[in-house]
Amino acid sequence: MKIYPDKLESNLKQKILPAYIVSGDEPLLVQEASDLIRSQLKLAGYLERELMHVEGNFDWQQLSYSVNSMSLFAERKIVEMRMSGIRPGDAGAKALTEFAASAGEDTVLLLVMPRLDQAVQRSKWFKTLESISGWIAVWPIEAAQLPRWIEQRFRKAGLQASREAVQVMASRIEGNLLAAVQEIERLKLLSSDGRVDVDLVAEGVADSARYDVFGLLDAAMSGGTARSVRMVRGLQAEGVDLLFITAMLSRELRSLATMALELKQGSLDGALKKGRVWQKRKNVVSRCLREKSLEQIEVLETRIADIDAMVKGIRHGDPWDELINVVCALSGVEIIPKKTADFASR
Q: pTM of the prediction?
């Protein structure tokens, strides 16, 4: 049974199902749906939780062992399985099908996985499991819907944000909802009267080490090579997640690529309008678009993918050093040209 995320809480209060499937590629929304399921199940008496990470050569017999074993701490429990992929293989398909056939009231399965394609949705194992489950498919917030979502989050936090503040927030965190929630919590501490204007958003972002990523982007795009390098090393020293930085940089490059394509066909003002560039950033973005061609921006996008591969151990190289190379190239100074990285498995 498919359950829409906004109906999940009321559904859980009406009836507990033998299993819940939460799928999607938006980490925050997946996390919130999973948290809601766990909290409601706890209220219903499911006090024990067993967590399994399904990766590589996972032994699917663990599911059967867990379901059939007696709990030492509670009569009811949650078996949570977090899958790194969407295809469980033959062993996983068999184990999940068997669970669906023998599911009881004492154990609830919570299956958390990435967004499902049509092939998986049509598979026998998924249809069998879904027949006894609540399936919560989480979709990303589209750019057009993002301001409304942010405004709702502000209200939920007890804040009243101006329209411009909402728009600025949307332009800065598109593609990273977790960053938006964290920033709203920060603004809640900064706001003395429960109101949030555009200056408070800009100031709050600039003052946070985690969100100095946005300052890094502006520094690089405005040609501040030395400052950009210092900022990268500062972020590294402060322990900021490198994948967060690359996600924000990748988002900025995608936006620049869209505007560069528009610029080929029209005017700079038209490109900036299409890119929904905030007034205070127009000079920075305009300079970058004048200095960088669409082809150069696309090359930088591939180099971001290389950094991600280095972080995950798929390619050799120091990802922080490569980030500096990319940032310098974005600022207009090519320190070390891109070279094909060796695969780590070689």
A: 0.58
